[in-house]
Amino acid sequence: MRSTAVLLLGYAILITGNGLLGTLISLRLSQQQAPSIVMGVVQSAYYVGFLFGALYGGALIARVGHHRAFVTLAASSACCALGYAVWSAASMWVALRFVTGFCLVGIFTIVESWLHQVATNAQRGRVFSAYLITNYLGVGTGQFLIGLADPGGFELFSAVAALFAASLIPVALAGTAPAPGHALEAAAASCGSRLARGLSG
User: Fold this and answer.
1) Residue 152 DSSP SS3
2) Most CB within 10 Å of its CB: which of 66, 151, 185, 198?
3) What is d(CA 26, CA 18) in angstroms, rounded to the nearest whole number?
């Protein structure tokens, strides 16, 4: 249970950053007086990436394992968070949102399949309840962080990148992850669950 708690701590840090990022992008586009169609396309690109990640992300987990896949996807998400501050072109933001969506659903899949592997039948309900509570608290907390700085500046995007990077620390210390040979089945089940829930989370 200790390794599960450490894993959920890393996930809480990451999902807090994602909650902040979603709100920040909307406010930044509003400040720039972007047309509604542009705002819709930018935000929708996240869910397109989410869909592709749910369909194809499991192969990465099966090939390199949960630890390395988490590190790869969280680091990529941190780079994307900084990219929003560097580039202002809508086309770049669409690409960044797509990559972010792909990475985030991969991370959701890693966490869910990891928990599925380590939780016993007696613990499973409590473990996944804690996971869902962590998810909603993290998203809500991230949205409250929007008041820490001006959405038009660089600082909040840096904060998102820092949260994404900080999530790697607990996961690196979380103990033994499920072996890559057992990851594909769990990852596939988790991806299917994500799609069935209508891209929630």
Assistant:
1) coil
2) 66
3) 13
Within 10 Å of residue 140's Cβ, how many Cβ atoms? Answer: 12
* Domain boundaries, position 122: 2-196
Domain-embedded: residue 19: yes
Beta carbons of 147 and 160 less than 8 angstroms apart: no
Residue 105 inside a domain? The answer is yes
| Residue 72 burial class via C-beta count within 10 angstroms: exposed 0-12, middle 13-18, buried 19 and up | middle
**Residues ≥6 apart with Cβ < 8 Å to 103:** 49, 53, 73, 74, 76, 77, 80
Is the Cα dihedral 125, 13, 42, 30 positive or negative?
positive
Sign of the Cα pseudo-torsion (179, 180, 185, 191, in order): positive
State the pTM of this model. Answer: 0.84
Give me 152's structure tokens. Answer: 């038009």
Q: Look at residues 167, 198, 162, 148 and name the one whose alpha carbon lies nearest to residue 24.
A: 148
Is the predicted pLDDT of residue 200 greater than 50, yes or no?
A: no
Domain-located, residue 201: no
User: Cα separation of 104 and 88, whole Å?
Assistant: 22
Q: At what angle do helices 183-196 and 36-64 cross, to 10 degrees?
A: 160
Question: Residues 15-58: pLDDT tens digits?
Answer: 999 999 999 999 999 888 889 899 999 999 999 999 999 888 88
Q: What is the CATH number of the domain that holds 93?
A: 1.20.1250.20
Distance, CA of 156 to CA of 145 (rounded, Å): 9
Whether 48 maps to a domain, the answer reads: yes
